[in-house]
Amino acid sequence: MAVWKLHGDGRTVEPGKVVGPDERLGWGLTVAIGVQHVIAMFGATFLVPVLTGFPVSTTLLFSGIGTILFLIITRNKLPSYLGSSFAFIAPVTAATATAGTGSALAGIVAVGVLLAAIGFVVQFAGIGWIDRLMPPVVAGAIVALIGFNLAPVAWTNFQQQPLIGTITLVAVILFSVLFRGFLGRISIFLGVAVGYVVAAIAGQIDYSAVEKADWIGWPTFQFPDFVSPGTWSVIAMFLPVVLVLIAENVGHVRGVATMTDSSVNRHTGRALIADGVATTVAGLFGGSGTTTYGENIGVMAATRVYSTAAYWVAGAAAILLSLSPKIGAVFNSVPPGVLGGVTTALYGLIGIIGIKIWVDNRVDFSRPVNQYTAAVALVMAIAGFQVQWGDFQLGAIVIAAAAALLIYHLGNAIARWRKTGADDGGPIPAVGPLGGDPTDAPVR
Fold it and tell me: DSSP readout, 221-232?
């Protein structure tokens, strides 16, 4: 395990340099940066349990524990905060409604175990096989469909308090374009704060649970149910989430490697194992599934401090915050209008992240295989397709993800066998410089 060495004078970061994972600034600055990481993750991490009905304090506890487990398993060489993953919202919401919280937790545990197993394979066999299984058009479709599948949930909350929902949504958008840097990156949290204050002034918040809650106490623990008849169909609903967590973890590792040292990429397998273990532990005791957080990547980019020491501070701070039931009750008091406003933006943004994968990888949508891979999967997810055999039910996310994989791989095999040109021919080649004004230079 890496031992932190003091970076420079411990007070400043020289221009063009960064504080590496095995370095730290003075402990006062390290603690301050760690607390900043807690603030950055807080808005998104508390939203997931609020939206799914899970206890906020429990999720916060296992977020902190998961972060510390991540640092231990990656040998203190990969800076990351593990917050609540939005990819779990759709399957948890559906599973809780149809089979209960215990079955939803069983689904989270199953995802964690599978992710850890994939991490072991990646650690020894490399990550190339994942790129072949889930090329950009498939990866983008699966990420996008998870976000768009949640659209009806956002509308259900929004229509209960349309004015509060509109104010919250407008605030989120305004903060994102009004501020730069850190404040711009926490626009969702700030938008929720504005909506909450307006709802409080309008007398539309019930504080009875807050008044009864103790200031200090243990979070509420719940346990997975693996024996109920509906649990195994619920677990199938969760499996596509694994693909999203792989994409998020791989992207996180590559982002840190780009900004620090390319050798960080060697820890990709360990990152997947660590997130899998953290998700499994959370699911075993009633917490939400975890993932590496882009919000904290933003903090590192802004501060140029990639020290894992700051994340030990952040994990410990989250655990301490989780030991106040009153804080959890405050977050659970967020009214439906605020949730409807923020999720209208948030679920759409999850969808846009999938579309960004297509854009970044220049997916060629003139090819029929790519067209139908994306088109069929998105319509299935948005419409809420379901298949049921007796007590066994497959939800829209698993059906749409399976359709994307099947259409892409089988369609490519047939198109290449028949040489029709309908297959995925790779990224669209760039024609001339990207961006800027076109030139009038003659074509030679």
Answer: P-----SSTTHH
